[in-house]
Design a protein that fits this description.
The chain has a single domain, classed as Vaccinia Virus protein VP39 (Rossmann fold). Helices cover 34% and strands 20% of the residues. Helix 6 (231-247) runs antiparallel to helix 7 (249-259). It has helices at 25-44, 52-69, 102-110, 145-154, 192-202, 231-247, 249-259; strands at residues 12-14, 17-19, 75-79, 94-99, 114-117, 130-136, 156-167, 206-213, 264-270.
């Protein structure tokens, strides 16, 4: 059953996709990123920005959390729905998605997700309409983080569940280097403390759990004590881990979580006593 979720009329349509935001420098930049992604996907079947095995680890971690907290028939919004891969696993939910790439929205719509084109700052949905909201790899891109989080929380029902996934302890130096051809990519970093400060102290949410996701021994810069280990030994340690993986995958995965930082982290929150409302 499709319900009327929008708070206002769209400013236009592209086919059957309602549009709630005008294009600008930020959306043009994102369209370039998504176009490069889709071109690589069509030509090679790959994501040019994330190795497929890591992407699957990220997505599976969030899918497990959606499955854990969603109930059949719940309304769910994916902010930054992308290809629609996350919600495609949940036909029993009433699924909605927003993005600022028409290429992504076309693919998500083909998976029977109700989509719209909108910036988070122009949040088009009614307040307190969704049982669950997910946003994966979104918050690191926001120009105004507090405004964006307030907008996201405004459409979540009281006591509703927000699942956010973000990069974890990321080195941002590449994004300011000449090699980065995009203007807006990752604009901030996150760890457990920064997430709790944002969601608990600024927005008054209840943190239910955090789940790390995405490990790979080949990335020696993710070693927890990398600065204490000479570079030549880091690579030897990485090769040793790969040998362990061949012998015992469960042991390999357990050791990775002890010695390596994950690439991303999920945080599961319950909306309660919001201190800062979206304007």
């Amino acid at each position: 059953m499709i319900i009327d979720v929008y708070a206002r009329e769209p400013i236009g349509y592209r086919g059957t996709i309602p549009i709630f935001s005008d294009s600008n420098d930020y959306t043009d930049n994102y369209e370039q990123i998504s176009a490069d992604h889709l071109t690589s996907l069509q030509r090679h079947g790959t994501n040019p920005f994330i190795p497929e095995d890591l992407w699957i680890q990220y997505e599976n971690s969030t899918i497990e959390l959606i499955r854990k907290y969603a109930k059949q028939g719940d309304t769910i919004l994916d902010v930054g729905v992308g290809l629609g891969r996350l919600l495609s696993d949940f036909p029993e939910l009433q699924r909605y998605g927003m993005d600022i790439s028409f290429g992504y929205l076309d693919l998500a719509q083909s998976k029977w997700i109700e989509v719209c084109y909108a910036l988070v700052e122009d949040m088009p949905y009614q307040e307190r309409i969704f049982d669950m909201v997910v946003c994966t790899d979104i918050l690191e891109h926001m120009l105004d983080l507090n405004l964006s989080v307030g907008k996201i929380l405004s459409v979540l029902k009281d006591r509703g569940i927000l699942i956010a996934r973000v990069p974890y302890r990321e080195d941002l130096s590449w994004y300011v280097s000449p090699e980065c051809k995009y203007k807006y990519v990752h604009l901030r970093n996150f760890d457990e403390n920064s997430l709790r400060l944002l969601f608990e102290q600024v927005f008054g949410c209840e943190v239910i759990e955090m789940v790390n996701a995405g490990y790979d021994a080949a990335y020696v810069n993710r070693l927890k004590f990398a600065t204490l280990i000479p570079e030549r030994f880091r690579w030897r340690l990485s090769k040793l881990f790969l040998k362990v993986r061949k012998l015992s995958k469960p042991l390999y995965e357990a050791l990775l979580k002890k010695i390596y930082y994950s690439f991303e982290i999920n945080i599961v929150l319950r909306k309660s006593n919001i201190r800062k409302e979206a304007s």
